[in-house]
Amino acid sequence: MDKGTFGGLLREARQRSLLTLESLAEASGVSVRAISDMERGRSLPRQATLGELLDALELEEDERRRLVRACDRRTRRIPRQLPPDLTAFRGRTEALAAVHGLTARVAGQGGHVVISAIGGMAGVGKTALAVHWAHQVADRFPDGQLYVNLRGFEAETRPLDPGEALGGFLRALEVPSGDIPAGVQERSALFRQRSASRRLIVVLDNARDADQIRPLLPAAPGCLTIITSRNRLSGLAATEGASLVSLDVWSREEALAALAARIGQERCAAEPAAAAELVALCGCLPLAVAVVGAQLNAAPGMPLRTGVRELGQARSRLDALSAADGRVGVRAVFSWSYRALTPATARFFRYLAVHPGPAVSAEAAASLGGVETVQARRHLRELTAASLLTRDTEGRYVLHDLVRAYGAELLEQENEDRLGAETRLLDYLRHNARAANRFVWRFPAVPAGDPVPGVARVTIDDREEALEWYRQEETTAAAALRTLHDARLLRHRIDLTLEWVAYNSVTGRWAEEISASRIGLDAALALDDPVAVARTAAHLSRALVETGRTDEADDLLGLIMRQMHRLPPQEQLQAERNASRIRHYQQRHAEGLRHARNSLALARTLAEPYEIARALAIVAYFLSVHGDPKEAVATCEEVIPLLRETGNRHDEAATRRHMGYAWQRAGDLTTAIEHYRAALRLYQEVLDDYNVADVLDHLAAAQLEQGDTDQARVNWTRSADLFGALRVARAGQIRARAEALPRPESRPAG
Prior knowledge:
Elements: H1 3-16, H2 21-28, H3 32-39, H4 47-57, H5 61-70, H6 93-109, E1 113-119, H7 126-137, E2 145-149, H8 162-172, H9 184-195, E3 201-207, H10 210-213, E4 224-229, H11 234-240, E5 243-246, H12 252-263, H13 265-270, H14 272-281, H15 286-297, H16 304-317, H17 330-339, H18 343-352, H19 362-369, H20 373-385, E6 390-391, E7 397-398, H21 401-413, H22 418-436, H23 463-483, H24 490-499, H25 501-506, H26 510-527, H27 530-546, H28 553-562, H29 569-585, H30 589-606, H31 609-625, H32 629-646, H33 649-666, H34 669-685, H35 689-706, H36 709-725, H37 731-740
Parallel strand pairs: 1-4, 1-5, 2-3, 3-4
Antiparallel strand pairs: 6-7
Helix pairs in contact: 1-5, 2-4, 8-9, 12-14, 12-15, 14-16, 15-17, 16-17, 18-19, 18-20, 18-21, 19-20, 19-22, 22-23, 22-24, 24-26, 26-27, 27-28, 27-29, 28-29, 29-30, 30-31, 31-32, 31-33, 32-33, 33-34, 33-35, 34-35, 35-36, 36-37
């Protein structure tokens, strides 16, 4: 993290854009003082602030990437996930007094207070109050703030799974992705453990019900949990001691004050009757007042009475998108703001409503709209200025669910190509994953083809950038697989599932892989595509095995084998290879050897040297664990020259491991250890942590057999740490072996 480098780049970019500090501040909404501090190397911006600056500068993508990388915050220790506070926050005097009293209880008694229901109807300002309150008291909670939108009431998507929310919290608390367990209960327990000694604010926004919330509650004294929901959540009050705060729409006076904060007190005072009628047309709903205020602010010369007339006309032409009490016509408010958009941005907004996730990146938004990323950023800025979008802490764009519903309605009214937008989104997620996999995964998943026109391409130059792109889009990919159900997208869903196997595997996201592979397998079965069935079933079986559910893989293996007569030879070879792997995990080595020999026979018919060498290596493995050790060694010696010709260090490493095990079974421990160490070096060179852990397991066993207990303990511990980081079930067994070994007796001092 180099503050000076970032500041210099920011200053150069501002000067090239011919902007003063004042003009950049006006265009971005970031204060002059904050920009000055950044340019002088005194501070770095949050992600959302960085996005505002880069958008205002209108930089090309390469220059944006240089500034983003210079602003890298990887050494950050304290999570600060709160969305920005509203500068125009007004009203809520009684509610703020009540919640500040609750905050005082946390500070005074050291107790954990849960605040539920900042509750009320959609658009009433629950999130604004929660975020404003959290910002006001953040200094009392020095260990940071966590925030998540639980998406409890979005029509197009399911509520956020608590496990997914916990994953984000744990990563914010610096738990490596590989150390995050798969199950909700295990994640919840780890979250409580990690937050036990901290004073944190946890904001759980837009919750559906108490069951969604409970796993996310820290148990530590001194933590403050703020929950917003359209439901009252009385059960949470009864079981968790939550205090309930209910919000209604603003009073007329509060609504007028909020409008004046947005457009200027003088303007409201000049036309008091028109201002009062405007907030009445908004039903005093905070969201509606914010949208109207943004529109009026964008037209400073327009009389308020003109706004009243136009808003009234919009209301008369459209049905009211009413809240439960029927008082508020927010569709009319949205339509007034929508009609002021440029035609291109209005079309872009309609397509943006197709996005299924909680927040959208600029690149995904560009793909939905079928436009260049630079153009998409301009549209996003216009929508943000109109208060139809907000930014989250990572700089992505968020649609309120009422705004999303309005945009989706317009999409249908205008007969836009929803299927085309969904196709572009899936292609964006798949083809950029393929680009990322050049740095993440050693084997391509499926033939790439070309994406449909309009898909944004992301520049990815190294493994770090690849994993960062995956992290940015993982919630979007999961939501897209869950919600894009058009039968014409089945092929795209399969291809997306297969391409994301790499990320899920190298980061140990086995629960996510199980969910995705089931979706891909269902799509493959619906299309009756034997190749896709065999591939997705194999990936699903791998994920099940890695989470300790080996018995469930049998049915999947049977499904794969039933496709054999329909598969082309290359896919038959892959299916036999996958079958041998499943039997390996189940320790059914005789059956595994049979499948390995079948794969070798198929490889010989294809006359491809690499496939023959790889198949021989798998046969050698099963011979080393089940057959004749001497035959295994001879087979390995046949394989290694072939692999060196192909330059495949990964498979050479695997063969060295097999040879080590064969020599170990033959009783030559010294030679076995030499081969294990050679395999270890090769796996480390190709950054394969999974197989590094596996070789360490074998190496430790050989060292123990040789009598080197201390080194065996060290290597089993290293193996358990690596497998644990990848959330592999056998990590616990290996750690138990290490801990069972006797430790050297400590000698008394002196």
